[in-house]
């Protein structure tokens, strides 16, 4: 594996004196061996290279490197060595020593010998020899840094063998025989297509048998992510959820399900035939779904919940076999996973943490104890510990290709997971034609998190998120203090103040030290009863806000549900941001979620800040929608032509406040529909023409045949087998309010899975079981 960069942090840039000239010659010889050389004259320059150059393969560091302005008495070389240890795993470092007789190794701190791989006295050996040592160490590092499957795949690619197996494009050759195929080949490149191989390539191992380099990669991932066993999954976390649910619970057994779940969890219940008993999370005034309060997961509360569920009467046992919790939530709420496991262990032998958006948690101390694989014999000793599954969508917030996911297993004697049995579920939901570049990306994502670089990568994302959060808060404060424009601005959903646990000093969030916010979990805890989050029933330390999931808040309502006279509905903001090529993750009525992944930079979030400032100026100046949202006006000219941005915000805010949509949403989630039939039964009716699509105006009292999920907030409001309820019930009132909103503001319609809209009338329609097929029908 050739190539790579070598850092030469050796003091003043090499001149023509004996020592400097020799270093220059060593650098030239190093470049001649295929390596790029980056020179740094001071510790700050070296720090900049270490921050920006991920392709480093070695470093040559002078112990007496000039330090930075805050270096203290320690030489700059020491600071560089420490920073290398925090940034890279096992990067080879050669320490440049002075030539005077008084300099010797015994004067160096003992930790230095544990950090470097050797020493260089520039004038004692030839430049070619020293450069050879550097190149040898660099090449060995570049080879060793590759994780198992990716290394084997590269080795196979380099063999340039002819293929007589699938896929039929044969390394891309077939594409070269067609004009459109050639365009495809040129776009993606030969290397990707050569890596698209068949399971017939034995030397790469088997995904289903977990052998060879694939098996090695899964075992490596288990070590890195803290699991007993890890399985690589294609087709996304949805497949991982279905796989685990299908394995853990069978027909007519009870599953405890966080109502704030992904639809793939329901699909797993449909496949298995389980009977769900839903646990209801809290909600706040913004309409955001909160955590399951501790009182909901305690054994007595679970027993009461099961006893009150009509489906439980047909279950084989009243003891749940499986419980699933969403962690973190879509909006970034992270549980104390050990406490949740302890609470649910009193009811269920298996606990599944759906961590689709949370694969990075193990790699930063902010999240200590708040992820599934943190639950183990060391944190939860004794026979009551449940088996824990954690499913993670690796591609979402780590660096992997789309559709890649992992299942992590922490087995317990109480409910042991035998590999051969679980592998049957794995094979049932897997594919015999895996995309090898996707598997390699799972392997690489694991390698990126292994060791100090994982902490460094996540810390960088946390740091940028904190900087953005503080900048928004400070900007809002400056606008309010200026007095030369309307005082409103966007906010961020976060604590107003934080306390330094070391000193007890309390800071306004906007002014808190950066190091405090990025290193102290208590700064992000949802303190019981705090108005900023608005969730009832929490206990100290139970739930934490994830700093990298940033929820922007718009004027109009607060976390306690108090309406304001003036409002900026978030759907309008999101539509404007899209015109600036800024695509957000999720939009609710008055909140917008943006994710600070490892790919975030100051330039990227600075562009978002600029767009927010521009939106405010356009709103306050009365700019017309023809200028601000020309696409909306072009699509609906009779509705929006001649309307200003401020007028649209006011009209939409008045509509939302008049309909009290947030309260209706809260009631629809808190007062769950009555379960009538298991989800699997409803699915059987769906595929055997036992259902019909009807207007919600005619749906009172009917049994839903398909899930209805409204985005925002992205959580099911109606599950298959549940009663739609009475005409004046919370569910139909909420759906009618959404229907009314869509008619009033075309172009801003809710994304509602399970609902179709009549193009002519705008009526909402949903799938219901035919009356003569419904349970209890004559």
Oligomer: single chain
Share of helix among residues? 25-40%
E-strand count: 26
Q: β content, as a range? A: 5-15%
Estimate the global geometry from the Cα principal axes: globular
Average pLDDT confidence is 92
Strand order of the largest sheet: 6-13-12-11-9-7-8
- Main sheet record: 7 strands, mixed
Structural class: alpha/beta
The rounded Rg comes to 29 Å
Number of continuous helical runs: 28
Unreliable sequence segments: none
Distance between the termini: 73 Å
Describe the structure.
It holds the Pfam family OKR_DC_1_N. Keywords: Decarboxylase, Lyase, Pyridoxal phosphate. Belongs to the Orn/Lys/Arg decarboxylase class-I family. The chain is α/β, with parallel strands linked by helices and 778 residues long. Helix content is 39%, strand content 14%. It is built from 28 helices and 26 strands. The strands form 7 sheets. A 7-stranded mixed β-sheet has the order 6-13-12-11-9-7-8, sandwiched between helices. Helix 9 runs parallel beside helix 17. The longest helix has 31 residues, at 452-482. The mean pLDDT is 92.
Short descriptors:
778 residues, single chain, alpha/beta, five-stranded parallel β-sheet
Topology diagram in text:
Elements: E1 5-9, H1 18-32, E2 36-40, H2 43-52, E3 56-62, H3 76-87, E4 93-96, H4 110-115, E5 118-120, H5 127-144, H6 148-159, H7 179-188, H8 190-194, H9 212-225, E6 229-233, H10 236-248, E7 254-258, H11 263-272, E8 275-279, H12 294-297, H13 299-307, E9 322-326, E10 333-335, H14 337-345, E11 350-354, E12 387-392, H15 394-397, E13 405-410, H16 419-429, H17 436-449, H18 452-482, E14 491-492, E15 497-499, E16 506-508, H19 514-519, E17 543-545, E18 549-553, H20 570-579, E19 586-587, E20 591-595, H21 602-620, H22 625-628, H23 630-635, H24 637-640, H25 645-659, H26 661-670, H27 679-687, E21 691-695, E22 708-711, E23 715-718, H28 730-744, E24 751-753, E25 755-757, E26 764-769
Parallel strand pairs: 1-2, 1-3, 3-4, 4-5, 7-8, 7-9, 9-11, 11-12
Antiparallel strand pairs: 6-13, 10-17, 12-13, 14-18, 15-16, 18-20, 19-20, 21-26, 22-23, 22-24, 25-26
Helix pairs in contact: 1-5, 2-3, 6-9, 6-17, 9-17, 10-11, 10-16, 11-27, 26-28
